[in-house]
Amino acid sequence: MRMNKTTFAVLAVMCAVPVSGIFAQRGAMSKTMVSTMDKTFMKAAAQGGMAEVNLSKLAVERGGPTVKQFGQMMIEDHTKANEELMGIAESKKVVLPKTMKPDAVVAQKKMSKLNGAAFDKFYVAFMLKDHQKDVADFSKEAKMGKDEDVKGFAAKTLPVVQGHLTALKGMKSGGKMSGKMMDHKM
Question: How far is 85 from 39, CA to CA, in rounded Å?
Fold first, then answer.
């Protein structure tokens, strides 16, 4: 069977339409696909943020004045960051954990039995260790992340986490949080 140019052109267009639809679909999917590294960061940040809010609620209830003040700041900062991260995860179709990491669960149980100076010491030590890891994780994601939204979230949140770490170091050495730290905004 011989095809004239018109018949051939019509067949070519008919075949191209479904193929272009596949490429359009693939392009849309790539916008929601997130690398394993980015997913791992998002999940760890979600669990860490959740722990920092939950443990800081205890700090507001049980801690001394400086720890209460720091705990309130943590609740505000990490609630905001958690909400932003949840929005990014939802748009990327990434399911975030609904529970804290086991070490935070254990810490929460222990902290719920402490008050005053004993609480403060344990809380500050736990948060210090946690924020040292957070700074490393957020720095790595901000530099090496693949997804621009996740990478941007890490870069935007990193200075706040670094500020928390600085405040915790001061609190551990017996100092108070500086006014500069208290004036930061996420």
Answer: 11
Q: Supply 82's token pair.
A: 């958690």
User: What is the rounded distance in angstroms from the CA atom of residue 75 to the CA atom of residue 87?
Assistant: 18
Nearest CA to 58 out of 102, 100, 108, 105 is that of 108
Between the two ends of the chain, the Cα-to-Cα distance in Å is: 70
Distance CA 70, CA 182 (A): 8
pLDDT tens-digit series, residues 126-182: 999 999 999 999 999 999 999 999 999 999 999 999 999 999 999 987 765 554 444
What is the average per-residue pLDDT within 38-50? 97
Asked if residue 167 lies in contact with residue 123, where contact means CB atoms within 8 angstroms, the answer is: no
The pLDDT of residue 176: 59
The dihedral built from the CA positions of residue 26, 27, 32 and 35, taken in this order, carries a sign that is: positive
Beta strands in the chain (DSSP E): none
Class of domain 34-182: mainly alpha
Tokens standing for 56?
A: 């800081």
Amino acid 165 reads L
Instruction: For residue 97, give the H/E element and its range.
Output: none
Q: Which two tokens stand for residue 6?
A: 């018109």
Cα gap 24→30, rounded to integer Å: 10
